Amino acid sequence: MPGEPPKMIIADQDAAMSKAIAVTLPTTFHRYCIWHILNKITEKLGIGECFSEMCKCIWGMDKKEEFDAKWEEIITNNGLQDHAWLSSIHAMRENWVPSYVKHVFSAGMSSSQQAESCHSFLKQYINQKNTLMEFIVHFERALGS
Predict the structure, then answer these.
(1) Where are the alpha helices (DSSP H) in the chain?
(2) DSSP string covering 18-32, please?
(3) pLDDT confidence of 122, banded at 50, 70, 90?
(4) Domain residue ranges in the chain
(5) Rounded CA gap, 83 and 72, in Å?
(6) pLDDT, tens digit, for every residue of 26-40?
(7) Helix/strand/coil for 11
(8) Structural contact between residues 99 and 67, judged by C-beta atoms closer than 8 angstroms
(9) What pTM value is reported for the model?
(10) ∠ CA(132), CA(136), CA(141), 5° rounding?
(11) What is residue 95's three-state secondary structure?
(12) Helix (H), strand (E) at residue 14
């Protein structure tokens, strides 16, 4: 409804973003972008059998208990019990795992897809080393293509 805060926002798990959402929109559920999380998993573990198992666990478990049991099995079978980042992301599962976020309507969205698409497009034309003038030229080219 117009004038009311959104029920949910999908964004990455950046601490400043989380705090800003909690302060300015205290009744809004902050769902973490699963694209960022899966991307980070590939950075930490690579793309292989373990990643494939994790994807099946994340997307294929309908119940929280099923997810937790399968996650624990994957962690144990791959000797990842002491992996700090995986432990931290598991602790935040109530903000990103599909079986945990069913209580908030999301119209099937689980990532900041439109923003990611835009970022990907723009990265073809610009980078952080561009001067302001180069940025403007590259940005105009991107819009013209």
Answers:
(1) 15-24, 34-45, 49-60, 64-77, 84-91, 113-123, 132-144
(2) HHHHHHH-TTSEEEE
(3) low
(4) 8-111, 117-145
(5) 12
(6) 998 888 888 888 888
(7) strand
(8) yes
(9) 0.68
(10) 145
(11) helix
(12) none
